[in-house]
Amino acid sequence: MKLFVLSGGAAAGVVKGLQTEFEQSSGCQIHGTFSAVGVMRERLLAGEPCDLAILTQSLISQLIDSGHILPGSSQSLGIIKTGIAVRAGGVHPDVNSRPALIAAFRQASAIFSPDTEKSTAGIHFMNVLKSLGVAEELRGKFQTYPNGADAMQAMVHCASPNPIACTQVTEILYTPGIELVDVLPKEFELATNYTLGISSGANNPEAAKLLAQWLTGAASIELRIKGGFELPEA
């Protein structure tokens, strides 16, 4: 039995962390696709196989309204903030104010981020740079990828001597070779509620419901906390 999951990249670490145990317990094989939430929404709307979607709370609500996600099936995995990262062993710059952020980005040899048009963190990051007045100045340093996980992997292996990145903290903390400097300053804070929902076109709704319980319940608490999720109140 196959269970198809379309998910924002920020939740990849939780799904993959539970995958082996869930498959052995349920006899159901997870086929997960992880990318920017906007891309995942488009794939769902285009009819790609999906039993369970993990997107932002607002997108799940929209998909419930449009009939693509079952009403009453939405559950929160937790809140994810957006942060600044460097390669392991690199200098951790001050990023706690507008001037400090500008200086950190100017001093970096390359700037890594997820898609600045379709990913939650990427769109927000571009808006931060525009607010700081340095978006055009720094454009030549941009290294963008479909999602934050891909961006972090690329930064680990890049030849650039002093790279910096901005993406959701889960994608930073789940990537070996990358270190979280800090979350964005309060002025620029982005706290995203990642929420799952069962597809109205699910071929295996019962298996999707079971996976939803694993992803939002006790089985995943340690994984979610380790990855930077702020868990919803019980």
What can you tell me about this protein's structure?
There is one protein chain. The chain is of the alpha/beta class and 234 residues long. It folds into 2 domains: 2-78 and 192-226, D-Maltodextrin-Binding Protein, domain 2 (3-Layer(aba) Sandwich); 80-188, Periplasmic binding protein-like II (D-Maltodextrin-Binding Protein, domain 2, 3-Layer(aba) Sandwich), CATH 3.40.190. It is 40% helix and 26% strand. It has helices at residues 12-26, 37-45, 57-65, 98-107, 120-132, 135-138, 148-157, 169-173, 205-216, 221-226, and strands at residues 2-8, 29-35, 52-56, 75-87, 110-114, 142-145, 163-168, 178-183, 191-198. Strands 1, 2, 3, 4, 5, 6, 7, 8 and 9 form a 9-stranded mixed sheet that branches. Helix 1 (12-26) packs across helix 9. The longest helix has 15 residues, at 12-26.
